[in-house]
Design brief:
heterodimer; A: alpha+beta; four-stranded antiparallel sheet; 3 helices; globular; disordered N terminus; disordered C terminus; B: 1300 residues; mainly alpha; 74 helices
Chain lengths: 113, 1300
């Protein structure tokens, strides 16, 4: 029952505004590298909140893609850096697209009327 | 010998002489010989990218296929044909790109063919022909086995074999050195009632000769004689081999003389046979002599031939002569695939040292190239079990030669893919010696294989291997790859100890903890943490704990664990201390949940926070703020106050004034009788942010007269957050009294409605909604969504009246339109109560009121699950009646799919007459994506395969989205190519490039096909990425693709508009020789180069070169076809006045001095076309000959009459050149244009002037005119021709043809 209710809510979530997060999407990660190496590399640009390189449970290999979650807007440093090279392989680094733009709100509490 | 020659001579004389030279090499070919020398020129013009079976051959199958299609255009054949197309495309692409076919690909195509249940003759042929030298990675015997398997399986499927199939099988035998009895083969054919043909005999001779059986070959020659079949060079070449292999070199050499006597000059094939014969004997001297002889003759041996000689030397055990032949190889780029295939073949034949020698000799540009070369070799060595030490050495050599930057790493990767532990260990040790770190995850692929088979011993081996290399398994290794293999973690520990596998207790325990967390076993976690003696940092536990919490709803355990962590000396006592650590943990816990998860667990979370409060757990204020923002973004602000109670007040920032500071300041001001409005509001806002409702309300009561609306607004919101409906409502009333025109934020109104509704104050809630309407409060999408949440919450609580009345109010007030989302709670109400009849009733009711059917899908799913046949019938009858049968079928289809009743779903979607409904399919796809239903979506894609008009691309695209979302991409080349094509067609080049990158990382050698590359060029041009477009063009041409004319033209035109002459020249060089294949006229270059020059202000250069081309002795383009219309139009459009003037002068000069009228006429027409009628008239006056250029003028008329909006142009033209009206083509076009543009007046004038001249008008003309008049509501002054346009068009065409 709960599952159905949750799915109904999710269905309606299409409209929801997601808070945009500083996330970097990395591709072409070589096989020699896993999340700890990636984290180490990106730590120089700012605090890495989370770093995932999903492995395929069927093969034991990853698929060359990963996500770096920074804790603040420091990802710009990472994006501006041109040569992300680990183990002699150049990574492809790009911002993760935010799902939706957050709407700007001004509060009535700041108004004096 | 003599016996052999007689039939040959006799045959030669008998055969038609002209037949011989052309077909000599085309038809025969020894093992692995494609047609070559004689059609060399053809091959040059269109390079064949290697491949021992050429693409030309594959293409010829395609051509055969077309005929076959025309013969029997029934539906089953159409299906076969499209499947054939697919198979052909896959194999053809592979051959084109690499000159070979990977076994897996052939297997896949074969499996697919078998799966389809039938295979046409051509498809069988294609598969059989693929089993020879196109499979260099397979042992010769395996290839033949494969061919036999295909032969037998397809025969079982009912494929009928003809002589071409038998011939193909023979060729495969020859290419694979398969020993067989030719007589048995003939007997087999006879049994199958198939007559052998010349090719059959030729190949049988070759088979005998390969065995050194001259006698057998002679017998077959005898057969050929009785059948009057011609003897070709191929037969002689085979005889060379035959004699040589029987040990008779003298006669082998003699064959060449015999050939000459018989009137056939030995060609490269014959010489190659001889060369191979010497090579097999290790006779390098004769090889060299023969090569010199060939060099001096007008014959030419290609790299491919030399590679054959190398193969012969190597196989016969004379690798020492390989370098001498290698020296002679030119390494033309198109033979690189051939070289690679030879290398692979040598590795297959265990001649890997020779293979390396050839590899190292390849002149790959080493410094510039970033791509590694030799990976294919290393990979194949791993597959073929080349000894590890050898491989290590090869890696070293490749690196030294700068061919490969990381050969060891690459080979290791291959060893891991192939799950070869011993090899992997050797390679890892080598890497370690070179100073590369060996990482834990390298061992995962090795563990995976054993894990699947639950092979404990295998796992132990790998773990031991890890220890040997000095790598310690980490938590992930245990949890994901080791534990699943065992029944319990206890047994893992035991087995590891038994086998002497050392393990780190700390890591092991953490792994154990995590695997318990995955199952939500919080009891274990609590007792573990209580009894644990190992030093764990809190951060190392955090991930597992969050996982465990989310998988268990036992709040008491949540709290107990949190309390333990907070208070126990073992966990977070180190700085920054428990407050910070637990606060951060709470933040992470909520952050890790999705908004819907938090919404669903709202009550649980509330309970948790309150229990923590009881336990005196505190969190820092800054972390609280983070959590607050999260909750706000998740649409559960009601939880904020519950977290707020945990905030550690004592440590609040001391620099900011505290609420008590403000309060004393306030009292002071009050005592001094100063205004306190500002400070009061400040204080209220602060108390609100501290969630101190009690205090804030007291303050308001105390200083009521000094309250401003801002303070009230914040207070109302605070009360709403605290679920305090009573005070919220009172405050709202006071707020209104203070200023009845004041308006709250939308969000606050919505929260009020929510709280009031929740507390049964329905009328008040409705009043708030009315106020929103009256005060014209901005209702955004998010507001509508909030309305939905309010209604849905009430529905989940089962509050029927609240849902109904609020929904009614929202809809009738017009705050939001009824929609399937907004109105769904009306149905949810009953679904939650499992009252299916009422749920269905409510859906139907919504339809009757609002013409929407909310949650019909969920209702149907439930009905199916419960087996409520009658209600299903009712629902279907209703949908059928209201929305049509098709909608009903789709509803039912989706419901069956959703509930896993795939069989029923399949039946529905295969209902005759059902066709694709893109929006509905998309809806279901989106739903699957949102709910992560991979299987359901895959089933949908599978079941809709035959659905009429179904956009497969779109479905695949959805599947991609879902896979990407699940980070589980397992596509093949074709799917990727399809997606990229789709994205390009949707003009989404960024995404297309992303997918392409994906594909390139995941599929070795992934490339786009011709069509996709062409589309890509067009898109890049449109987006003004001309450099990229040029690169794409180069890539496509490098792959021997033929880009589309449109793509190349667009690119050239774009370069011209940029004035980039150089790029146009580059393109011209790139496509040199391919102009006809692309369909590119030389004029495209001439026009655009001139335009580019003009854009660069080099007008004189442009004009001079055009003039030269038109006046020089050796003209490349006939002046008649020297169309410059494009250039003129661009110059006119661009208002390049100086250029236009000079061009005009040039055109007139060409006309007046050289009698070249085409340019001036084109210019004239372009002036007319651009509406510059006066300029055109002036030009005509200066150059009267324009009016005589009837063919050019008529072509212009015909082209223009095919486009709308050209009536004014045609009218002007007729005014300028009135004699046009005498031409039937011209007046027909004129009428067509007028009709196109509904220009009745001009049409009338034309008709009248024609009838005045007594012109006999054709029926098509009259028909057009009549329809125009009729549509304009005018009468037709003649009898309208009764038949259709098509009829008269055809009639006119036929009458013209008979006149010719």
């Amino acid at each position: 029952m709960l599952k159905m209710a949750a799915s109904a809510v999710r269905g309606a979530m299409v409209l929801r505004t997601d808070i945009s997060r500083p996330v970097v999407f990395v591709r072409k990660i070589p096989g020699t590298v896993a999340s700890s190496e990636l984290r180490e590399h990106f730590a120089r640009f700012g605090h890495v909140r989370k770093c995932t390189v999903p492995f395929d449970e069927e093969t034991g290999f990853h698929k060359g893609m990963g996500w770096i979650h920074f804790s603040s807007e420091e990802l710009h440093h990472a994006l501006q850096w041109e040569n992300h090279v680990i183990d002699g392989v150049k990574l492809h680094v790009q911002p993760q697209k935010p799902k939706a733009l957050q709407e700007d709100q001004t509060s009535d509490e700041e108004r004096d009327f | 010998m003599a016996a052999l020659l007689r039939p040959a001579r006799w045959l030669l004389r008998a055969a038609a002489a002209p037949y011989l030279p052309l077909s000599l090499r085309l038809l025969a070919g020894g093992p692995g010989r494609p047609h070559a020398a004689l059609c060399l020129r053809a091959a040059r013009a269109r390079p064949v990218a290697g491949g021992l079976l050429s693409q030309a051959r594959l293409h010829s199958i395609a051509a055969e296929k077309k005929n076959y299609l025309q013969e029997e255009p029934t539906s089953s054949h159409r299906r076969n044909a499209s499947q054939f197309d697919w198979a052909l495309m896959r194999l053809d692409n592979s051959v084109r790109r690499t000159g070979r076919i990977p076994k897996t690909l052939l297997q896949k195509v074969f499996d697919n063919t078998c799966h389809s249940g039938s295979a046409g003759g051509n498809q069988a042929l294609l598969l059989l022909r693929s089993c020879g030298s196109l499979l260099p990675e397979l042992k010769l015997s395996e290839r033949t086995e494969f061919a036999h398997k295909i032969w037998d399986e397809l025969q079982k499927l009912g494929t009928v074999y003809d002589v071409s199939h038998y011939n193909a099988l023979l060729k495969v035998y020859l290419q694979n050195d398969h020993k067989f009895s030719p007589t048995d083969f003939l007997a087999k054919m006879e049994k199958g009632n198939i007559q052998p043909n010349r090719v059959t005999y030729q190949r049988l001779i070759a088979a005998y000769c390969n065995m050194g059986d001259i006698e057998g070959a002679s017998t077959i020659l005898g057969f050929m004689k009785t059948k009057d079949l011609p003897v070709t060079e191929a037969v002689f070449s085979a005889l060379v081999t035959g004699h040589a292999r029987s040990g008779d070199m003298e006669n082998a050499e003699n064959i060449l003389t015999v050939m000459k006597e018989a009137g056939i000059e030995p060609g490269p094939d014959t010489y190659l046979a001889l060369l191979n014969a010497y090579a097999e004997k290790g006779d390098i001297d004769h090889v060299k002599q023969t090569l010199e002889k060939v060099e001096k003759s007008d014959l030419y041996l290609m790299d491919r031939d030399l590679l054959q000689i190398i193969l012969s030397f190597s196989k016969a055990g004379y690798p020492q002569y390989v370098p001498e032949i290698l020296e002679k190889i030119t390494y033309e780029r198109r033979y690189i695939p051939d070289t690679m295939n030879l290398i692979l073949l040598l590795v297959t034949e265990k001649l890997e040292d020779t293979a390396l020698q050839i590899l190292l000799a390849c002149p790959i540009s080493r410094e510039s190239s970033q791509n590694d070369f030799g990976s294919f070799f290393l990979r194949h060595c791993v597959t073929m079990n080349t000894p590890a030490e050898k491989l290590k050495d090869y890696c070293k050599k490749l690196k030294e030669a700068q061919l490969h930057t990381s050969p060891l790493q690459f080979t290791l990767q291959c060893a891991l893919v192939a799950q070869k532990l011993d090899l992997a260990k050797v390679l890892m040790k080598a890497l370690k010696e070179e100073g590369f770190p060996i990482r834990t995850h390298y061992f995962w692929p090795l563990l995976v294989g054993h894990q699947k088979e639950k092979n404990v011993q295998g796992i132990v081996e790998v773990l031991k291997g890890m220890h040997e290399i000095g790598v310690t398994p980490d938590q992930e290794t245990y949890v994901n790859y080791v534990f699943p293999c065992f029944d319990s973690i206890k047994s893992v520990r035991a087995v590891l100890q038994e086998n002497g596998c050392p393990h780190d207790d700390n890591v092991f325990s953490q792994a154990e903890l995590r695997s318990k967390a995955v199952n939500g076993n919080l009891d274990y976690i609590l007792s573990f943490l209580e009894s644990n003696t190992l030093p764990f940092s809190f951060s190392s536990l955090r991930g597992s704990l969050i996982l465990g919490f989310r998988r268990s709803m036992n709040i008491n355990l949540w709290s107990k664990i949190t309390e333990l962590l907070y208070k126990d000396g073992r966990y977070c006592q180190e700085p920054p201390g428990p407050t910070e650590a637990v606060g951060y943990f709470l933040y992470n816990l909520i952050d890790s949940m999705s908004d819907s998860e938090v919404q669903a667990k709202e009550e649980h979370l509330r309970q948790y926070f309150h229990q923590l409060k009881e336990m005196n757990v505190k969190i820092p204020e800054n972390i609280y703020r983070g959590i607050r923002n999260l909750l706000d973004s998740y649409h559960v602000p009601e939880l904020i106050k519950d977290v707020n109670i945990l905030v550690e007040r004592e440590k609040t920032d001391s620099r900011k004034p505290s609420s008590s500071d403000l309060e004393s300041k306030l009292e002071k001001l009050k005592a001094e009788n100063q205004p306190i409005g500002d400070i009061l509001k400040q204080l209220i806002l602060m108390l609100c942010s501290e969630e101190n409702m009690q205090k804030a309300l007291e303050l308001k009561a105390k200083y009521e007269s000094d309250m401003v609306v801002g303070g009230y607004a914040a207070l109302i919101n605070l009360c709403c957050r605290h679920d305090n409906a009573e005070d919220a409502l009172n405050l709202k009333r006071e707020f209104d009294r203070l200023d009845s025109s004041a308006v709250l934020d939308t969000g606050k109104y919505v929260r009020l409605v929510k709280v009031l509704g929740k507390h049964g104050k329905l009328q008040d809630a409705i009043n708030i909604l009315k106020e929103m309407k009256e005060k014209d409060v901005l209702v955004k999408d998010a507001t509508v969504l909030s309305f939905f949440h309010i209604l849905n919450g009430a529905a989940l609580r089962g509050e029927t009246e609240t849902v109904k009345q609020l929904h009614e109010a929202i809809v009738t007030l017009g705050l939001a339109k009824p929609s399937t989302t907004l109105s769904s709670p009306l149905v949810t109400l009953y679904l939650e109560k499992d009252d299916l009849p009422a749920a269905l009733e409510s859906t139907i009711d919504c339809y009757e009121k609002y013409k929407i059917l909310p949650r019909i899908h969920d209702v149907l799913c439930k009905l199916i699950e419960k087996g409520e046949t009658e209600l299903i019938q009712k629902a279907m009858d209703f949908v059928s009646q209201e929305q049509g049968e098709m909608t009903m079928l789709y509803d039912l289809f989706f419901a069956f799919l959703q509930t896993g009743n795939y069989k029923e779903a399949k039946k529905i979607i295969e209902t005759p007459g059902i066709r694709a409904r893109p929006t509905r399919l998309q809806w279901f796809c989106d739903r699957c994506i949102a709910n992560n239903q991979v299987e359901t979506l895959e089933k949908l894609v599978e079941m809709t395969q035959k659905l009429f008009e179904c956009d497969r691309d779109q479905l695949y695209y959805s599947l991609l989205k879902l896979y990407t979302k699940k980070q589980n991409i397992v596509f093949d080349n074709e799917t990727y190519a399809r997606l990229i094509n789709l994205l390009l067609m949707k003009d989404n080049s960024t995404q297309a490039m992303q997918v392409k990158d994906f594909a390139e990382t995941h599929i070795k050698g992934f490339t786009l096909n011709d069509a996709a590359n062409s589309l890509l060029i067009i898109t890049q041009v449109r987006r003004d990425y001309l450099k990229d477009a040029l690169t794409t063009l180069k890539t496509a041409l490098d792959l021997d693709q033929i880009p589309s004319r449109l793509a190349v033209t667009r690119l050239i035109q774009a370069c011209a508009l940029k004035g980039d002459t150089e790029s146009i020249h580059d393109i011209q060089k790139l496509v040199n020789g391919l102009e006809d294949s692309i369909g590119l006229s030389r004029m495209v270059f001439i026009n655009n180069i001139a335009l580019a020059q003009i854009k660069n202000n080099n007008i004189d250069v442009a004009i001079e070169s055009i003039e030269n081309m038109l006046t020089s002795e050796n003209q490349t383009v006939d002046p008649q076809y020297f169309g410059l219309a494009y250039l003129f139009r661009k110059v006119i459009e661009g208002q390049l006045e100086p250029a236009l003037e000079k061009i005009s002068i040039m055109a007139e000069r060409l006309a007046n001095q050289f009698a070249v009228y085409k340019p001036v006429t084109d210019l004239f027409l372009q002036l007319v076309d651009s509406g510059k009628v006066d300029d055109a008239r002036a030009l005509l006056q200066r150059c009267g000959a324009i009016a005589e250029q009837m063919p050019i003028l008529l072509v212009f008329c015909i082209r223009n009459s095919q486009r709308p909006g050209k009536a004014p142009v045609m009218k002007s033209l007729l005014e300028l050149i009135p004699e046009l009206i005498d031409k039937e083509e011209a007046y027909t076009c004129l009428m067509k244009s007028y009709v196109f543009d509904n220009d009745v007046t001009s049409a009338k004038a034309l008709y009248e002037s024609l009838t005045a001249k007594n012109v006999k008008l054709n029926d098509l003309f009259l028909k057009r005119y009549a329809v125009l008049l009729k549509n304009a509501g005018e009468s037709v002054p003649f009898t309208e021709p009764p038949e259709s346009f098509e009829f008269y068009a055809k009639q006119l065409k036929e009458s013209k043809e008979t006149h010719l």
